[in-house]
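Discussion board: Methods & Data

I've been asked by a reviewer to show the raw model output for two of the constructs in my manuscript, not just the figures. I'm not sure how much to include, so I'm pasting the format here to get opinions. Each protein appears as its amino acid sequence followed by a line of discrete structure tokens. Is this the kind of thing reviewers expect to see in a supplement, or should I convert it first? Here is construct A:
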Amino acid sequence: MAWYPGATKMELQPESDDQPAIRPTQFILHSIVAPWTPERTYEYWRDSTNLESHFGLGYDGSLAQFIGTETRADANAAANRRADGTGAVSLESASNLQASDPWTPEQVETLIKLGVWLHQQHGIPLRICRTADDPGFGWHAQFTAWNPNAHSCPGAARIEQFKKVVFPGIVARAAGKTPQEDDVALSDADVKRIADAVYIKLLKTDGVLDAPADSAEYKTNRFWSWQSHIQDVTTRVRALQKAVDRLIASQTKS
């Protein structure tokens, strides 16, 4: 039996010892349709039913494991254990009473960490299951073979979240990467603030660039701002232009 080190062990007996072994090839996510802590989920499996999941996840990201991941649990119908000995690891997560809410950020983080561990521990491939028997990651309502009663579990919001956030997060984390944030365009106000800062720093602040060595104040003012350089160049160019204009005028008169 394999026990995830990131979960609190709450072993269900006699199921943990009596149920047959599996070779885990899938990870299937559920909502328990109740705002339960992992402890309350454990009590429900222990006292109220002969069914169970491998894991229970609370709103705050707390996680409990009830059965080793290489032992059958009974939350996934035909995916619990197949004739070839393969089976699915199952997780029940706290939700509202309609199973309509998304996973909390804490739940998402725990799901990603557990998904990476299952990939590394059992070789569950980093793909969404393509069929009911296909190794990979999925959700309870994905296939009738897993969900013969046609529940919407884990709920539309969480299915969408699984596709866009949880599963990509597992893949990225397993590859040693973090998902990149989308670039955000600068607003006009942002551009103005940047321009003002650059103007103040480069154009108006002395001590940015070396002053010309032949400037009259070089010994006392070793550095000039961009503005000082531009004004100096402009003054010299205009003086040169005036000299050229005078020369041309004198040649024309003669």
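Construct B, same format:
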Amino acid sequence: MPVIPAAALAPGEASAPLVPPGLAIVVLALLLSIQPVTTDLYLPALPALTRSLQAPVAAGQLTLSALLLAFGCSQLLWGPLSDRFGRRPILLAGLSLYAFASVGGALASSMELLVLWRTLQGAAMGAAVMGARAIVRDLYTPLAGARAMSRALTGLGIIACLCAPIGGLLTEAFGWRAALFAPSLYGVAALALVALRLPETLARPNPHALEPATFLRNWLLVLRSPTFWAFSLLTTASYGGLFTFLASSSFVFIEVMGLSRTAYGLVLLVNAAFYLAGTLLCRRLLTRHSLRRTVAIGGALSATGGLLMLLAALAGWHSAAALLPPFYVFMVGHGIHQPCGQSGSVGPFPQAAGVASALNGFMMMLAAFAIGLWLGGALDGTVWPLVRGVALWSVLLAVVAWTLVQRHGEPRDGR
């Protein structure tokens, strides 16, 4: 069976245990996909569970924003722990906690308990996503990592395509609790794969990773890197646009436009399909262009989508048929920025990939939490919070792609 060669590592780095490339991509796809499984699958049920638990819209938004804040903050702990003890034990602990918290959320009897369980679920989810990004750095150099990440995120796109329709069908057939229970099954499946098939990928755990001096030194190493900031701001702006859509779309399309839960699930399915197309385009672009050029093309797509969406709304076209096509263009750009940004942000740090991955994830989720808080008060029964938020993030994203990434974003092994 072919394996990832040691040559995939940068010169002078320790060789990690060889992992079959197919297994590596499948594991990465499952670990990264835990995020849309946790967020997208329950979105069709969000209005229903908010009414069932007799809570205001802002409280319903908190089930998403609190989860993502915990997701981002927890990575700051999971990252150094994985640098100290290895990726495998952190993944096993995190996935076990995730499955447990998912069951607790499905059984919650009040909005307060649901927010608590979702917060715990988000903290556990951080171990999986952080671990996946760190594994990419364990096994690949930065440019090769971007290609591998694009393949894994193609798998994420496929899974994300299924999440919202499944969530809508489960909610229609069995109620909103079924949509909250389904992620526990996913967590158990991912746990089994990691436990049975994935070896440790960190060649040399750092026994000093949790010492205060080492901890501070690694943080400063990452935070002083302009390459880290360029790619992390890229992923943050891209995720900001997506999260604005995800956090507001169920209310806009179901409550304002009158779409059924099943129809809304199809909206998110097509959304994920365009993201999938973006990851495939990313792989093709990376074979023909430099990483910087690829990101610049993605920035043009993102800005075009966000601004066309704003123009459609300003023209008075407040319908799904008018607003969705421009956002799908934004999602193609998102499929380019995430693999390039996530691999690029950890690329310069072979001995502190866990810390770099954690800080990158924390930045994205901090933005998501702020967006969730804003939307809790901004949703006013119109399309404008969704449209203005996406337009703003699309412009910021293009600026980062065309300036910071162009100056600081070239990988060490890249063209």
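Answer (T.O., handling editor elsewhere):
This is acceptable in a supplement if you add a one-line summary per construct. For B, something like: The two ends are 30 Å apart (CA to CA).
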